[in-house]
Amino acid sequence: MGQDFGPTLRTGFAAIAERHLEATEPLLVGLWALRGLEAIDPYLSAARRGPALALGFSGRLAADRLAGNTPLSVADAVATLFAEAERQSPALRQAGRQAMIQAAFEEVFNHLDPYSRYLGAEEARQGRERRLGAADLGLTLGPAPRRAVAIAAVAPGSAAERAGLRPGDIVAAADGIALDAEHLDDAHRALEGPPGSSVLLSIRRGRRRVDLLLTRGAAPLLSLSARVRDGVLWLQIPIFSAATPEQLDRALTDFPEAEAPLGVVLDLRGNRGGLLQQALRVADSFLPTGTIASTEGRHPASLRRFEATGRDLAAGRRLVVLVDGRTASAAEVVAAAMADLGRGVVVGSATMGKGLIQVLVPLPDGGELALSWSRILAPRGWPLQMLGVLPALCTGGGAEETARNLATLGTADSPMAVPLARARAARAPVPASEIAALRGACPPAEGREADLAAARAVLERPEAYAGALAR
Q: The CATH number of the domain where 449 resides is what?
């Protein structure tokens, strides 16, 4: 057995067999892992020959091993073949052993799900620091045109505020690494680090560019903005952080129904998720009772149910939840709970459909596996993964189509009535054709200013609002 590869492969293969959401034949996992090396050295090839795994190099058989079909026996065979591949391939020796392990698990997860992944030792260490409370700059980021990353909010008293940063500024790079709105989670992580450490930000404001060195501190992430306008309490949550539930509770208390008689708009457009536990607490702040969400997987510990505690700090006020194609993960949990439990009306477009939960598995090489081990189910039992949350009022087709949809909202003639009923009846695994058909009823779209007017229009029509609530 390959002495250096064996322990990590054994731990990883055993975890996949025991915990991954989908059961997979161990021999297939071993074959995929071997094929991952082809990404580093295209002269390598891997094949399955009955109970054995074979490694080829430059068109000839380099080595083969009986692998059995248990996670540990397959891991031992793969480790031996890894050692032989390393011996024969200059490209592998140059890349290094962690690169080989990473390529192997990446190929395995290409066949399993979009969110499981291998984290190398340094990335795993940084992740542990964040989970233990790494400091940040007091910035909330959001997408801007042409995949730029913009500042959405600045926390009072934070390093960012002291540096004069303000919403709308573009953060082009952090420590020389370009930021991309397609990977906002990575952008937020780039701003985090140990308290007292520094990060160099490249900022663009209009035509002006400037580099600023900021020191990370413990300022809370500003994750909610609240305002009352024309009888509506507008709440925007760009990300769920540890501070979000407290900020929401304060907003609902500070702005009672008398100040916002029409109701509440909860804007989750562009919210890629964040901390699931905090999202559950946000949902709990609006619900009188019911199951917020549940999770299911093959491992007994993955089976969970999250119940509302009966707080409903909004005191039953009418609620519209704004979503778009970038609304994902924990934000989808909140939107689905409001819709399924008849607590609010969802307006916008189909959401992203990210409904898997990962568990972290430490590895002997210092890395970790983030392993998808459970799927999130909405209160009525349908899966969020791939399907996403469908709105009762679709705004993605433009102003005229939105007006037509509004006219039939809450009636059997609504174009979303049938897709919503079918989506709520769906059970995992949902066929790809059904997912495409349901999401095609209101395809994912980026939120627009007109969504705000649509949300207000729903609140202004009590009968349509009541008819659109799930029953």
A: 3.90.226.10
